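fyi for ur records
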Amino acid sequence: MAAPSSGRVSSSSFLYYLGLGTNLGDREAHLHTAVRHLAERVGEVAALSGFYSTEPWGFVSNHVFLNAVVCIRTLLAPLDVLACTQAIERDMGRVHKSANGVYADRVIDIDLLLCFDGQGKPVCLHTPLLTLPHPLMHLRDFVMEPLAEIAPEVAQAVRTSFLSL
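which gave:
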């Protein structure tokens, strides 16, 4: 279960599950825009969950979130996907990323949740910029419910692996 050796484009494909969230403005339009940008800049959208209305997690806000999970197939390695998603967030108006557990309202949030290599093996990565699998995903119903909708076996594996730690 080796991680790619660099953030550069790989010769084999990767399958990513990304969490999307927004709680400001036209939330549904923001999610659709994010998915369109992901398709243009990252790769093929293989699956998209329904949109889930959820309460803020980790902070207090009067603004309810709309969340989804998208599955993307691409040749891009994890750090390249991260760079693309952060550029999409900036282009859509996100000014600050959450840091050290301090969350705030946002136009869009795109989290890399899981990555599988071309052989279907999970990619594990721990760098100052990115940790895969996402270390908090199993605690977040707004991630696990849409993930279970588009990839029930993956969601079950996540629940099982995090429970066995």
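Residues 1-9 have pLDDT under 50 and may be disordered. thats all i got for now
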